[in-house]
Specification:
The protein has eleven helices and 13 strands. The strands form four sheets. Strands 1-7-6-4-5 form a five-stranded mixed sheet, with helices on both faces. A four-stranded mixed sheet has the order 8-13-12-11, with helices on both faces. A hairpin with a 3-residue loop joins strand 12 and strand 13. Helix 3 crosses helix 4 and helix 8 runs parallel beside helix 9.
Length: about 325
């Protein structure tokens, strides 16, 4: 039996502060009914405190992950962090996390694929396991979206929250773990969802700050239309090429961008709502954190051998899907 990369432990971290729809209504022209109807979101978590970046959440999640698995940080071979809100332009947030948890034998780096970041990082980490290069790979999806959100912009501030999920990948020879993946990119869509300033094209200036170009810019209708099509297409293709019918799929684990997008994707896959992981109402869109946070929330319901389809779409445009066989009974 070939070596596959199986998730052997999962953990999450959420900030304490809860930003409700009611509180948002005091900051921008909106209300609970309007937000809930269009997104399915009721509240989201926000990381408060001076000098607290995305690494703060990642460090806590990874520490709990290692404790759960009962291993030392020194056993980690590789640590990958998926994020668009890294602590710094450089060094990588993964470098910060590995230092803070004591993963002194690991090499580490970040992946920037927006909301598809965890899918990209998971498939990348899986290759190091399946080739036999590494035995223990930690994959983190984390974003402090509150750091790049304009809370005067109703089109974006209602959607995003902060949070982190982390998984441990280890070799498996039982036919469990990452079985297949399909990742896609279309850079021509970058202008529909991006941060205009802060990079080398438009470095920070007084003008870019005054123009509020360091916040997320999104053309909602265009992104919605493309996200529905691409997330659904890649998920259906993943089922087709692995000979999976709807009855064979235990769970759809979709990126938590918008409840209507999730529903449209599950309908294309002919899956009932009972097979769809959803926690968008509690956390909003945590970008790279949504999929691992879903797995963390639902882990008690997962059974060894369950067929999972992971699916995401993000700025760039980026999108992808993973066919995963769950490796252990839920905790």
């Amino acid at each position: 039996m070939p070596i596959t990369a199986a998730i052997t432990a999962i953990e999450g971290y959420l900030p304490d502060y809860i930003l409700t729809n009611q509180e948002l209504a005091t900051m921008v022209e909106t209300n609970d009914e309007w937000i809930t109807e269009r997104t399915g979101i009721k509240e989201r978590r926000i990381l408060k405190g001076k000098d607290k970046g995305a690494s703060v959440m990642a460090v806590e999640a990874v520490k709990k992950l290692l404790d759960k698995r009962g291993i030392s940080a020194k056993e980690i071979d590789l640590l990958i962090v998926a994020t668009v809100t890294g602590d710094y332009v450089f060094p990588a947030t993964a470098n910060v996390v590995s230092a803070e948890v004591g993963a002194t034998n690991a090499w580490s780096y970040d992946i920037n694929a927006a909301c598809s970041g965890f899918i990209y990082a998971l498939t990348t980490g899986a290759q190091f396991i399946s080739t036999g290069a590494h035995k223990k790979v930690v994959v983190v999806g984390v974003d402090k979206m509150s750091s790049i959100i304009n809370y005067e912009d109703r089109t974006t501030c209602i959607i995003f929250g902060d949070g982190c999920g982390a998984v441990l990948l280890e070799p498996n020879t039982e036919g469990l773990g990452v079985m297949d993946f399909l990742c896609k990119t279309d850079g021509s869509g970058r202008g529909h969802l991006y941060q205009k300033a802060g990079g080398s094209v438009k470095p920070p200036t007084h003008d870019t700050v005054d123009q509020k170009e360091h916040y997320v810019y999104q053309e909602g209708q265009q992104v919605f239309k493309v996200a529905v099509k691409q997330m659904a297409d890649v998920s259906v293709e993943m089922m087709r090429r692995n000979n999976l019918k709807a009855d064979d799929v235990s769970w759809l684990v979709p990126h938590q961008a918008n409840k209507r997008i999730i529903q449209a994707v599950s309908e294309r896959m002919q899956l009932p709502e009972s097979k769809v992981m959803m926690n968008i109402h509690k956390y909003g869109n945590t970008t790279a954190g949504t999929i691992p946070l879903c797995l963390w929330d639902y882990q008690s319901k997962l059974k060894k051998g369950d067929n999972l389809i992971l699916s995401a779409f993000g700025g760039g445009f980026t999108w992808g899907s993973v066919f995963l066989k769950w490796a252990y009974d839920g905790q």
